[in-house]
Task: structure prediction
Amino acid sequence: MPPKKKEGQQKSRANLGEDDALEWLKPRQLIKPDEQEDVAESDLVEEVGRILTTLNPQWVLDEVAYHYGRHQFLVKPKPTFGKAYPLLIIAGTAIRKDSEEAKAQISAGYGMVGFDDAGPKKVKVKKSSAEEEEEEEKEAAAPTDEPAGEEDVAHDEEKPADEPKEEAPPPPETVEAVEEVVPEVVEEEAEPDDGQAATLDAALSVLDIKPRVKKLANQFNFCERAALTYNFPRRSIDTQTIPPPRATYGSTALQCIIFDYYTEDYAKKMKEKEEEKPKRMKKKETKHEKTAQQIHDEQLAQRIREAWSILERLVNQNVYDDIAQDYRYWDDPSDEFREGMGSLLPLWKFQFDPMSKHAVCDVQWNTHYQDLFAVAYGSLDFTNQQKNGCLCMYSIKNPAYPEYAVITESPVICIDVYREIPYLYCVGLYDGNVCVYNAQLTLQAAYQYKSDSVRDKHSNIVWEIRWGPRLIDGEASFFSISGDGRVVQWAVMPGELQATTIITLSSNAPPIAGPDGTMLTVNSCGSCICFHPENPELFLVGTEDGMIHTCSLKYNRNYVRSVQGHHMPVYRIHYNYFNNSIYASCSGDWRVKIWEDGRDEPLFMFELGSPVGDVKWAPYSSTVFAACTADGKVYVFDLNVDKYRPICVQAVVSKKTKKLTRLDFNERLPVIVCGDTKGTCHVLKLSPNLRVMCKPPKKAKEVIEQKTLQIMKLDKLISLVRDPPFQTGVVDEKFEDD
Amino acid sequence: MGDEVAAPGGTVEKVIHTYPLIRHSDMSEEMRIEAMELSVTACEKFAANNELAARMVKESMDKKFGAAFHVVVGESYGFEITYECTTICYMYFGGNQAIVIWKCS
Result:
């Protein structure tokens, strides 16, 4: 501020004000001209008064001009208004209060009125020249200033006695003071009015208006009125909902913690699984806590049991000594004289007393223990079904009593032993359930796994059941085929069996109209299933209407191939052990047929004069197979010896009372086992002619393996049959014209 | 530390756990199963990138159950979180990963 003051008196105060106002805008850096003289600090601080006067310093009082006419200098005539020339004059309505007119008006009573005498009278007054001059000057300096204020200031300056201006000699301050005065005066004027308005507002009802002497606000008796509308007080109202409940949780995830938790969980799961298995057994065990004495007793009992079983074996060996001798050493000497023909030597008969009324529905040698075979006791008499069934395991070392026997709730129809775990059996039941039995568990535990009767069991008899390859996750799995036309794969999961329908066997029969116009599609009833020995995806399915379908695990709707193999239910399909494209099938239409994959016509066909219950290829020879029929006979064929007739026909059971149902070749011993409808299993020994091995050709220089020879033998045989049309093989003359 | 513990695990018993294991959860059954399946999918899809897996779970959960889910996927970390009740799920997966899912907006 001080440096500015020095700049000179001609600088108007408006400019000063402007500078002041713009202070905030500009950075306060003063640019000093080079030639600026240095001023001492004390001089800068010193305040220099500036006095505003009405005198125009530019005004030359006696201006002279040369008059060429008179040839002399003359004083120039002055205009009335000094240097300013009015362009427009608008007369105000206000009159000065100390003018004659105002005095007259006041004396006349104007101004005595209480509250609305803002403009007393409109009188035109010509301003004096001095006033005008003042005005001009101010306007030039600050044209935006309020005229009333302007007048005020002018008046103030004219009448110094009115204002406190003279007490404050420093001119700038005076200016400010004057400036301040203006609004003050106005406010003074406004305040009473406001007060009045307020009182009016507040006491409108009272209407107590007293005429009073108007306080003169200014020289013009000019006042302003203003009113404020009532402002409603603001208030804010808000509500808050209850925030959702929160909680905190903290933990630490470390590899060790995760590992421990997994281990714990895994252990728990394993324990649960353990408990799942022998639940019934567990219950019984938990009933009575074992004391040391009891444990001792049990151990003793176990030892006694072992001793007893040895004793039993001994006794049996003595009792059946002659049979054992026959089994081991006796080969029918008559074979030498019967060219190509053979016989079967009946050895032991196995019976289980509670199952004397049941039929042997399936029989299978164990793949690991050569002396052990499993028997499924069920019933094939569908009008008079048995209520229960039985799974038994017999050893030929002990023909008197089964090694393992477990009674099932429903007749057992089919059975299969797991090759990897030879004590694991899967069985298919008459009521559509499938179970897995573990022969190592005690009898109390019964089955280890059973299909869920509600959720996924078959809705018809399970006709055949076969273990399959392990699944990707390593679970064992088996397949079952049932009369409801479904092939289901069962995965043996921990604690449960998981069913997957592989294929639903569609039939050619048109849909049957059901209730309410629905159409029911008819499934054909599956009766047997056989997996391709090499390609685990391919399998053959025989149906009750005699069709043989080649299916794949990959297609669940369509068959790969389909052949009308028989005219009656197909009971068994069995692949040759040596050639993967050759399989045999047997059926209720009395026929056994030998097929080659991809051919619609069988290679061989044999009529056996009675429903054929089972056909199996011999594991030792590629051309030998055996079949058993409902009239109690076992037929053994060797295609290499005779392409048209069996080389052995033997009646094993009485035709009138019993039928043969199933048979099975032992994989290593020269015996077969066959079951009948009265619950008896017959073990028969094959005579030497029935198990002729191949002789290597005399020309051959090196030793050829038996297996290769067998394959060669079958190939040679097939090539003979392939080209000419097939011929019906005939067993008996009387069936020739079937 | 993690290695020390993992090493005997590899030698003593060759059990590799691949299933998801809920450690702590107060979610509803439906939500928990959803979260579990999502985590399994995400962790299998982005086995090498936990960040992407977490993002996938978070975005899917946001879509299904409303915004502001938070997901942490990692092998070793500690946490202390404030969550809206019935929205937390702390689980393990694949034998070595820990996944926390919670909602807090």
The helical segments of chain B are 2-12, 29-45, 50-65.
